[in-house]
From TrEMBL:
GO terms for cellular component: cytosol. Activated by a monovalent cation that binds near, but not in, the active site. The most likely occupant of the site in vivo is potassium. Ion binding induces a conformational change that may alter substrate affinity. ATP binds at residues 183, 206-211, 237-238, 262. The gene is rbsK. It comes from Fictibacillus macauensis ZFHKF-1. Keywords: ATP-binding, Carbohydrate metabolism, Cytoplasm, Kinase, Magnesium, Metal-binding, Nucleotide-binding, Potassium, Transferase. Belongs to the carbohydrate kinase PfkB family. Ribokinase subfamily. Its cofactor is Mg(2+). This is Ribokinase.
Amino acid sequence: MKAKITVVGSINMDLVTISNKVPKMGETLLGQDFLSNPGGKGANQAVAAARLGADVKMVGAVGNDTFGKDLLRTLEKEKIDVSAVEEVDGASGTATILVSQGDNSIIVVPGANEQVTPDFVERHKDAIKDSDYVLLQLEIPVESVEKAVQIAKENDVKVILNPAPIQKLSDALLANVDYLTPNEHELELLVEGRDKKAILEKVIVTKGSEGLIYYEDGQEVSVPAFSVEVKDTTGAGDTFNGAFATALSEGKSLKEACLFGNAAGALSTTKLGAQAGMPKKEAVQNLVEKE
């Protein structure tokens, strides 16, 4: 069964600097390399799902600048339906990424992503209605995320929310999400002041090199990570989410989807750049079968 996934979210250009160490405040360093790569959590998740065989639609915005044209071409090259991606006045979103010693620090400037308003989402509701799963993140206005979730629930479409970058979310929004995919830090903020049990029923907690955990019948289930040679962790979480959504849409069990997502995320770290390292389905399946 071919997965039908709609991603509502950000489309950015990643400006990546490679350095041996992170500069201190006021310090200037010579870096080793610089790359500009298509990115944004939304676009990354869309590319990850498309490379794994899903039928993907993207709902989002790019600026009427050079970055915007490049970003659109990239999505089209990945065979993603971009009929719900609008070109708006102003700059495209950017993420400035410093990669050092196998880890990264990121500053995101939303740009055109701020124009993905609730009305914008409403205009493209047919893309959401005609999906198995809707995949969301928090690099567009949270009211727009709420609108997408509302449309999905009204049409019996499942929702996966990657709550990053973390911010305050309403109880109503969390109640209507089928799966939450936070990291450990994001989970702490999600459960603060809330019924932790209700949140844990929906979470798949990504833990990087330690794999992930989820909860079944109140019990913690651990899914180990795959061992690979890590070059760049940028986009690993987005790859997991795209793979996880694809696997669930194809009818895999929760545990199978977690394994599949872990393998895809691991493979994505073996190359520089978020989208550059995203694997094809055969490579993911081969890694799962080896373990």
